[in-house]
């Protein structure tokens, strides 16, 4: 690359006049093609249940701690009744206890025992959800719970008047001032666990509602899985996803969804890895556990919901399983670091991975395919890739276990690409050892991660130009530019955009890329920056989100050779791709400097003088420090216009901007 234009020749003087000075740069694109084949699936998303991304986030359940499984192991001030209150109304009296002798299922060991000594106007429990339950006036919600009548006969004695009498129960939605917004009655009958449900339609919109369950007679109730679900989930799925968040993800047009992480995959200790089998089947039978990030995972958003979401948004599933080792930063024995599953447990673990593949791809007649069919999806979901390991230290313990898993998948499922791991950084010991191991095993793809400064992305724009085309392909599985204060600045977003132009240019090597992390609930965030923030009722889109969206919506399958004639020290990057399905040529230009730049663009191969229609989208903001603040008008957002483009034209690229020019056929 060489710098064109006079501005850079004036040294110190340049700084003084820089905002008024437009450098002239040449961008020449072989627009007629054919171009080099690149990954059509470059931009995807990384989902990890971190920052309350699942429970209290994408999973639409509105009750927190619905199955009384919260514990002090998760947070020191938590217990089985966290987020619950005992209610005694109108002279009612009773008590709340915890039981585990006769659970709905052994996987869900605890439940509440409500004893009503004097019913008054009702004795029961109330739940305020995650920071209050948000309700929409006129919308329908399903309130449900599992219950049976304990203490019949035994507690109240023979011949007592309540023996065999059903327990009337009121389910009520209450506003923050206690006003009743909706109410329905059910009767709990008998000593067997049974699910009861009602539909409630609140009369008012309320951000901080409570779900209240009241027993209205003397006696008792065993209660579990007390739930409130909006009927209007994403694509109307039962046990589904929060619509606004799911839609924001879908709007990126991600080509794949990675799940369940991240560090969550191998968990905080070797026997705390994410076990996919714990996350399927009826929700009351799933195994909740302490989330590595210090809260409770219900697994309500489990493997089935994940695969269904992928299908609903047209994205490929990209699950990641542990490599039989835990994180080097947290073993079962604190401070011991990486530990491997005992070798005698490895065959069963490898079988679990094979079972996962059968559950996804097997026919409904197979053992695990039948479980998928029973959940409502007889057709295979379709799995082509599986990640094994996450940022693991490349030790003999790791290698031995990874090798076992890889060999079996390669033998039994040659149609599936195993993605290996090359450590947590863009270089260094685990990166080098991981790559050496990948070459030894002839892995088809490896997973690179880097959280680095914005400057790093600009300085490493040519990282993949130097990669050996015969080596494993690359999945940039986690990346983000971390600016000062780890804020979601426009500067960070443009650095990621510059990275993405180089991924596109090297799309024969870099097959997939996913920004991380994806979601963060305000007030419950363990990691910043994230791509999408949210609270109970709002979704806050960052500058980084819009970069992902623009690349996701404007992907191509061929890279059109191009030359950007600009000086190395200019923060300027570009890429040009062809979308063969439409014939559209898509040019992306990133300017990370505080000055605008004039670019002369030549579309070689286009008939001289013949104008073409184009849409131009510009993502910019007042300055590089600009951040979209919650609840305020977006300062960084894409602006669209329609243009007529000639084969040779001049474009002034705004300071601190990403421009996408989509030229239609
Ligand atoms: O994305 C957050 C965390 O960063 C992931 O869990 C882990 O893989 C990485 O270190």
Averaged pLDDT:
93
Low-pLDDT stretches are 1-22
Instruction: Kindly state the percentage of residues in helix.
Output: 10-25%
Strand percentage, roughly? 25-35%
Q: What global shape is seen?
A: globular
Radius of gyration: 28 Å
How many helical elements? 11
According to DSSP, the number of beta strands is 35
Distance between the termini: 29 Å
Q: Indicate the structural class.
A: alpha/beta
Largest sheet: 8 strands, parallel, barrel
Explain what you see.
- The protein is globular, with a radius of gyration of 28 Å.
- Helix 5 packs across helix 6 and helix 5 packs parallel to helix 7.
- It has 665 residues and is of the alpha/beta class.
- It starts with 11 loop residues before the first helix and ends with a strand.
- The chain has an eight-stranded parallel beta barrel, surrounded by five helices. Strands 2-27-29-30-35-32-33 form a seven-stranded antiparallel sheet, with helices on one face.
- It contains eleven helices and 35 strands.
- It binds alpha-L-arabinofuranose.
Short description:
With 665 residues, the protein is an alpha/beta fold. 18% of the residues lie in helices and 32% in strands. The strands form 7 sheets. It has an 8-stranded parallel barrel with strand order 3-15-18-19-20-21-22-23, surrounded by 5 helices.
Layout of helices and strands:
Layout: H1 12-17, E1 23-30, E2 36-37, E3 43-46, H2 54-58, E4 84-89, E5 93-99, E6 111-118, E7 122-127, E8 133-135, E9 141-148, E10 167-174, E11 180-188, E12 194-200, E13 206-215, E14 219-230, H3 243-250, E15 256-259, E16 289-291, E17 295-297, H4 303-313, E18 316-321, H5 346-361, H6 367-374, E19 385-388, H7 396-412, E20 417-421, H8 429-441, E21 445-452, H9 454-459, E22 473-481, H10 490-505, E23 510-515, E24 519-521, E25 532-534, E26 539-541, H11 543-553, E27 558-559, E28 562-565, E29 572-579, E30 584-591, E31 597-604, E32 612-620, E33 637-645, E34 648-653, E35 657-663
Parallel strand pairs: 1-31, 3-15, 3-23, 15-18, 18-19, 19-20, 20-21, 21-22, 22-23, 24-25
Antiparallel strand pairs: 1-28, 2-27, 4-7, 5-6, 6-14, 7-13, 8-13, 9-12, 9-14, 10-11, 10-13, 16-17, 25-26, 27-29, 29-30, 30-35, 31-34, 32-33, 32-35
Helix pairs in contact: 5-6, 5-7, 10-11
The structure holds alpha-L-arabinofuranose (AHR).
């Amino acid at each position: 690359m060489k710098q064109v234009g006079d501005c850079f020749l004036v040294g110190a003087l340049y700084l003084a006049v820089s905002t008024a000075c437009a450098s002239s740069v040449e961008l020449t694109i072989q627009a007629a093609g054919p171009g080099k084949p690149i990954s059509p699936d470059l931009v995807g998303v990384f989902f990890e249940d971190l920052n309350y991304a699942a429970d209290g986030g994408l999973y639409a359940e509105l009750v927190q701690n619905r199955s009384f499984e919260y514990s002090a192991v998760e947070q020191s001030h938590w217990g089985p009744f966290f987020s619950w209150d005992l209610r005694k109304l109108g002279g009612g009296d009773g008590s709340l206890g915890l039981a585990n002798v006769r659970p709905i299922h052994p996987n869900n060991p605890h439940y509440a025992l409500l004893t009503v000594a004097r019913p008054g106007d009702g004795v029961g429990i109330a739940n305020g959800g995650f920071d209050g339950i948000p309700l929409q006036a006129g919308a329908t919600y399903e309130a449900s719970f599992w219950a049976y009548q304990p203490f019949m006969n035994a507690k109240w004695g023979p011949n007592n008047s309540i023996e065999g009498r059903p327990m009337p129960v009121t389910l009520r939605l209450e506003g923050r001032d206690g006003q009743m917004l909706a109410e329905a009655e059910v009767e709990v009958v008998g000593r067997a666990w049974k699910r009861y449900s009602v539909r409630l339609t609140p009369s008012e919109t309320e951000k901080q509602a409570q779900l209240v369950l009241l027993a209205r007679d003397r006696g008792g109730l065993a209660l579990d899985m007390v739930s409130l679900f909006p009927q209007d989930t994403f694509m109307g799925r039962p046990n589904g996803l929060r619509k606004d968040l799911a839609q924001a993800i879908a709007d990126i047009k991600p080509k794949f969804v990675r799940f369940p992480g991240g560090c969550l995959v191998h968990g905080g200790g070797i026997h705390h890895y994410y076990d996919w089998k714990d996350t399927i089947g009826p929700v009351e039978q799933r195994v909740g556990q302490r989330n590595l990030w210090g809260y409770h995972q219900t697994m309500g958003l489990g493997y089935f919901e994940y695969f269904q979401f992928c299908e609903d948004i047209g994205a490929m599933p990209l699950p990641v399983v542990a490599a039989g080792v835990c994180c080097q930063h947290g073993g079962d024995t604190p401070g011991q670091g990486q530990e491997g599953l005992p070798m005698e447990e490895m065959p069963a673990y490898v079988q679990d991975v094979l079972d996962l593949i059968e559950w996804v791809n097997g026919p409904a007649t197979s053992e695990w395919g039948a479980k998928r069919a029973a959940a409502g999806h007889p057709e295979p979901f379709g799995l082509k890739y599986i990640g094994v390991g996450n940022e693991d230290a490349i030790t003999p313990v790791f290698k031995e276990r990874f090798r076992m898993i890889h060999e079996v998948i390669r033998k039994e499922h040659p149609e599936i690409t195993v993605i290996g791991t090359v450590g947590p950084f863009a270089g260094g010991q685990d990166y080098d050892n991981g790559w050496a191991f990948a070459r030894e095993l002839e892995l088809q793809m490896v997973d690179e991660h880097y959280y680095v400064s914005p400057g790093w992305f600009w300085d490493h724009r040519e990282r993949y130009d130097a990669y050996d085309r015969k080596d494993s392909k690359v999945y940039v599985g986690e990346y983000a530019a971390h600016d000062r204060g780890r804020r979601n600045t426009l500067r960070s977003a443009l650095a990621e955009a510059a990275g993405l132009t180089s991924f596109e240019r090297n799309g024969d090597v870099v097959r997939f890329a996913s920004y991380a992390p994806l979601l963060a609930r305000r007030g419950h965030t363990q990691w910043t920056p994230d791509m999408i923030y949210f609270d109970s009722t709002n979704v806050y889109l960052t500058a980084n989100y819009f970069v992902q969206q623009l690349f996701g919506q404007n992907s191509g399958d061929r890279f059109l050779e191009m030359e950007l004639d600009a000086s190395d020290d200019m923060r300027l990057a570009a890429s040009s791709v062809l979308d063969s399905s439409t014939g559209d040529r898509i040019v992306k230009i990133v300017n990370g400097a505080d000055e605008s730049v004039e670019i002369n663009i030549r579309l070689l191969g286009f008939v001289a003088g013949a104008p073409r229609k184009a849409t131009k989208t510009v993502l910019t903001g007042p300055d590089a420090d600009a951040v979209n603040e919650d609840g305020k008008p977006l300062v960084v957002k894409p602006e669209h216009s329609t243009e007529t483009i000639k084969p040779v034209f001049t474009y002034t690229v705004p300071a601190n901007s990403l421009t996408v020019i989509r030229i239609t056929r």
